[in-house]
Write a structure and sequence with these properties.
The protein is built from eleven helices and no strands. It has helices spanning 4-15, 19-31, 33-45, 48-55, 58-64, 66-89, 102-117, 120-129, 141-169, 171-175, 178-200.
Length: 204
């Protein structure tokens, strides 16, 4: 069921830097290894509703309903622009201590979750992507879809964790340089704004 083609295609899709990757990397740089783990988990959980929508057939409704798609799209655009503004205006130094408090962890996971759940392109993507790898002679197509979804989520989490850990490895150099901090903050802000603009211009 889990063909090499599906695994390779999923890996390529997950590796491509998008909103989740940018968010996880920024968190890893600013708050450390554990914080990036929370961000990775939040981003992964954020794709669950999209996968469920695909598996249960709700994605087809969104694909044919311009209003539903546009509402979710512009909610996602607003949230990305909000992240861009908050990141741009933040003048605090990058944290030397890692996130350990439960409240901070929940906050990070919530932000990451919202980042992905408000991206309607994910639902449309899964609607077009997953069915291609369901065997035509499968006894349970629904079971296969759930299995493929689980594998995709696992790969997403692992890749995002790796991105976060790589970002953490550069924290020492970043924390010691206010100029690098400023440059990174502006770069992340511009990236969020750019992704928001790209989403705003997206057609179904």
């Amino acid at each position: 069921m889990f063909s090499a083609e599906f695994l390779l295609t999923s890996l390529v899709v997950v590796l491509i830097p998008g909103t989740g990757v940018i968010f996880t990397v920024s968190i890893g740089l600013m708050y450390g290894r554990l914080a990036s783990l929370y961000a990775s988990l939040g981003c992964t959980l954020g794709i669950v509703p999209h996968l469920l929508a695909t598996v249960l057939g709700l994605a087809a409704i969104m694909h044919t309903s311009a209003i539903a798609f546009q509402l979710l799209k512009y909610a996602g655009v607003a949230y990305l622009l909000y992240l861009a503004v908050v990141t741009w205006r933040d003048r605090s130094a990058f944290s030397v201590h890692e996130v350990k408090r439960k409240g901070d962890a929940v906050s990070l996971m919530s932000k990451a979750f919202l980042l992905n759940i408000l991206n309607p392109k994910l639902t449309i993507f899964f609607l077009a992507f997953l069915p291609q790898f369901v065997a035509t002679d499968a006894q349970s197509s629904l079971g296969q879809l759930f299995g493929l979804s689980a594998i995709f989520m696992a790969m997403t989490f692992v890749v995002f964790v790796i991105y976060g850990q790589l970002a953490h490895a550069f924290r020492a150099a970043v924390i010691e340089s206010p100029k690098i901090q400023s440059w990174l903050r502006r770069s992340f802000s511009a990236a969020f704004a750019g992704l928001g603009l790209q989403l705003a211009l997206t057609e179904r």
